[in-house]
Task: inverse folding
């Protein structure tokens, strides 16, 4: 039982197809997927869309880095992160379908909704910037999402709790990846520092929206189902302060942010329409297609 | 940086031809690292390939992203390719051929119990 290479080692035993790996876990194995009787199903459906759309749209922006990342190794890393988020989106959009009782598939939510029906935060949809902007956006997104998922592990909805338990491990790595890069760029050359600081400045107006709770989030948080985003601001600020200090970067001096109804209400920036056109055009051109 | 790349190319002859031929073409000139992974059922770390990274921390993360995507690993080592001194294919005969006919060096003179694995 000695092996010439690792792939021989991992395929030893039952699973002969190493490309599909071995020992995979189904995150929903053994989970009761019926909506708890005392949870408002309409609210749960909308909340699942919010979390699912955050992951779907951020994943799409990360996918756009394929073939244009600065290094091959980082291209794979970003694709891995995008795939992690896409996996979370699939489970969450399926949860929305189960909760709203329509029985529509996850694809319908991704490909056949209009812009105002998407409930993602606007940070996720912003036009792709440079690598400094990507790093800043990913750090902010992952830090915020990780704080939410850590609380959702205790959700009274068993599916949200299971998705969160899976997501915590994934997003912890996303945050680590982004933090490592932001420290490298910020504490690097004058040029890389300016890019990192510029990236933070570009996304910072969309940070307050992350912590502004929608009525549905507030109601479900009170019912022990959702995580109230307003409650994770302190943790977020602590993590960002720590990373920015190590990166010798300054917290951007942006007062207030963009106010009013926002992504959680279905109100988006101009970039969202173009993003959805790219995301949905193939599915809409041939709605009967299967893949 | 160029000396590091040359060293990487030399190590690459042992570590896989892709790594060797790509070693000098990285846009940033990051040095080459060799990656060793211990699989879930593997007993020891096994060489799986190489990658470019600016330092060990980045090499470890890149290795995680490149070589453990399909649930392959539970532990990763990364080693600068320049730190590996490899035997040369030219020396194959003097290095290895002499042991080819020394059958008496194998412990064939006693039975290995069935419950002693990995011999």
Result:
């Amino acid at each position: 039982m000695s092996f010439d290479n690792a792939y021989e080692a991992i395929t030893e035993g039952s699973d002969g197809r190493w490309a599909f790996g071995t020992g995979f876990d189904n995150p929903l194995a053994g989970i009761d997927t019926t909506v708890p009787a005392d949870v408002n199903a309409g609210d749960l459906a909308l909340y699942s869309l919010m979390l699912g759309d955050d992951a779907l749209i951020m994943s799409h922006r990360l996918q756009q880095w394929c073939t244009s990342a600065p290094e091959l190794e980082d291209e794979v890393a970003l694709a891995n992160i995008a795939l992690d988020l896409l996996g979370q989106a699939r489970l969450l959009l399926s949860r929305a379908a189960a909760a709203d009782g329509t029985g529509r598939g996850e694809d319908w939510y991704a490909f056949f909704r209009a812009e105002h029906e998407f409930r993602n935060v606007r940070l996720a949809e912003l036009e792709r910037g440079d690598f400094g902007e990507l790093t800043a956006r990913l750090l902010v997104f992952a830090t915020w999402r990780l704080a939410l998922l850590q609380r959702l592990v205790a959700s009274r909805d068993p599916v949200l709790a299971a998705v969160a338990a899976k997501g915590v491990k994934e997003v912890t790595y996303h945050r680590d990846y982004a933090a490592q890069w932001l420290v490298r760029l910020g504490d690097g050359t004058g040029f890389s520092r300016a890019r990192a600081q510029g990236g933070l400045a570009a996304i910072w107006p969309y940070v307050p929206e992350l912590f502004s709770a929608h009525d549905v989030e507030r109601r479900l948080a009170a019912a022990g189902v959702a995580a109230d985003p307003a409650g994770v601001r302190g943790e977020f600020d602590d993590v960002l302060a720590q990373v920015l200090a190590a990166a010798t970067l300054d917290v951007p001096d942006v007062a207030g942010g963009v106010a009013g109804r926002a992504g959680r209400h279905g109100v988006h920036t101009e970039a969202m329409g173009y993003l959805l056109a790219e995301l949905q055009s193939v599915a809409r051109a041939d709605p009967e297609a299967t893949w | 940086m160029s000396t590091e790349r040359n060293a990487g190319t030399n190590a690459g002859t042992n570590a896989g031809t892709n790594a060797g031929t790509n070693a000098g073409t990285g846009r940033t000139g990051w040095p080459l690292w060799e990656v060793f992974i211990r699989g879930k059922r593997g007993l020891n770390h096994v060489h799986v390939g190489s990658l470019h990274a600016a330092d060990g921390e980045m090499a470890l993360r890149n290795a995680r992203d490149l070589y453990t995507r399909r649930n392959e690993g539970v532990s990763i080592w990364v080693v600068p390719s320049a730190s590996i001194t490899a035997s040369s294919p030219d020396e194959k005969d003097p290095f290895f051929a002499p042991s080819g006919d020394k059958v008496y060096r194998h412990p064939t003179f006693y039975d290995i119990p069935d419950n002693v694995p990995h011999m």
Remarks:
- Chain B has one domain: 2-88.
- Residues 108 and 114 of chain B are 15 Å apart (CA to CA).
